[in-house]
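Show me a record, fold above all:
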Amino acid sequence: MSKRTQRNFKIDNPKVFKQKIFSWIKQFETVIWLDSNNYEQKYSSFDCVIAVDEFTSIKTDYHNAFDKLKEYQSYTKDYLFGYISYDVKNDVEKLKSTNSDNLFFPDLYFFQPQKLIFIKGNTVEFHYLQMIDDELEEDFEEIIEINPNINHSNSSEESDIKIKLRIHKDEYHQKVTKVLEHIHRGDIYEANFCQEFYAENTIIDPYEVYIHLNKISEPPFATFFKHENLHLLSATPERYIKKEGNKIISQPIKGTAKRLINKIEDEKIAFDLARDEKERSENIMIVDLVRNDLSKAAIKGSVTVEELCKVYSFKQVHQMISTITSEVAPTKHPVDIIKDTFPMGSMTGAPKISAMKIIEELEETKRGLYSGTVGYFTPNDDFDFNVVIRSILYNTDEKYVSYSVGGAITAKSTPEKEYEECLLKAKAMKYVLLNN
């Protein structure tokens, strides 16, 4: 187990400190930045965490990916940060991913950071590997000295990015109709069908775009990830799975409504969402699936639905979220708990395997990191992982920018309404790309 030196510092203004540290991370090849945006939530471990500079790492395709991760995590017994892409489903079940991929992210990547910084209220905790702990004070001083306002191009002129659709509206309608045929035949109850928007030969400033995206969304699981030429800029509101001691928490989102400027109308739309029969049935189907997934690793009888179909409000949208918890035996390996529940039900449908086969057939793009998960393990086997949605993916070498959106198709869905919901979910990503 790698030893870390910990030092705590007091800061006056966490918001400004976050801006300074976000400028400071630009020098590193590998970065994960997880920000809760001070969103009020029951299961929170910190306001923000920054992991930089890999000491050791694992990068693999989906073949035996979970076994390799398990071995790496067991051996390292340190903080590990990284992601599992959606296509690691092929390691869990006999499935395949044959759709086109222009982003080229490895299927799974985790690293052991040399430098780790947690922000908790007015305290900053530095956890540095001992071999570099002489840089700790120096780095803190350097961050304090940064002027975060330099190099910020606040230009609001429209950029000349050309965003294209991988699936056009008529074709989208045809594909959703096919999903509905599967539902009426009884092959599935629900499927999460996704489509990609993309821009080729495009150069963006990932740091600026992320700042802009985060500012207009302020979600509780915001993520900035960079590894060499690969970037993820995510404003995801969804937690996939968290482990705190022997407790497991999963919080699927199903059900979306737009925010309105008028307070009374906005409250009414949230009230209506909470009672919307179609949205509730979508959510409850996934709750059943998550309960089933959690029960694989759970102590018998410990799976509990803590909250069912509760509406939470974010800057862009209202979301219907359920919270399901369970208890696991202390001997249960953390990686096995993730494997038992992967990929998350909110991004597949039910029953899971049939839904994954159908969406693979109908979608045009390999999902990759979209609808996968980013998160971390702690040295004492806890973990927390989000769901990669409302996210922009960018490969600087390929000059390729991509964002995907999806919707849950159930028996009550209409192609027209599903298409509108996709456009609503895509709004923030499109806006920041065209106005950065």
